[in-house]
Prior knowledge:
Oligomer: single chain
Strand order of the largest sheet: 2-1-3-4
Amino acid sequence: MSGKPRLTYLNGRGRMEPVRWLLAAAGVEFEEVFLETREQYEKLIKDGVLMFQQVPLVEIDGMKMVQTRAILNYIAGKYNLYGKDLKERALIDMYVEGITDLMQMILMFPFSPPETKEKNIDSIKERATNRYFPVFEKVLKQHGQDFLVGNKFSWADVQLIEAILAVEEKIPAVLSGFPQLQAFKKRMSNMPTIKKFLQPGSPRKPPPDECYVETVLKVFKK
Length: 222
């Protein structure tokens, strides 16, 4: 192995995309193995590689890590993106959990029936504009700092910029009433490591399409 973290998942966003974002934001290069068949997935299970028979799988520092939250916790801690003390870590955790709730709606959207997609877009917009984005707009306005926690770049900032861009793909004007988040998006997008990740040819995955949905169903559904 090259020493780079090795990510095993489908060639698409899913539950691995926050991991890609966090590693990229930390300036860490990584390798990827893409699952394309049910047989590849079953072999990982048979070989005992997947603790709970689930991916994402990240091989890092001699460990074979599963469970997205555990992976993200480790990466954030390893690369100093997890606050300076327990209080800052608690804030980061709360922000990340909230963003994850919103992103779960985005994650499941491609798998919804065509007749429900418009309704689901409306639900994402309602949740984003009434429940989640107002929290971060208020935080940024109240403390007047560039970052969410401790005036230092953290995992929470990475999760938020990922969420903003993902929601904007479906609702382009979603930030129209959030000037603080507009400025935050601009700042984050111009950070060197994130700017690089947003360029064509980076490991960032495109929005899920029908091909990705078919691959997910082929690999994971018996």
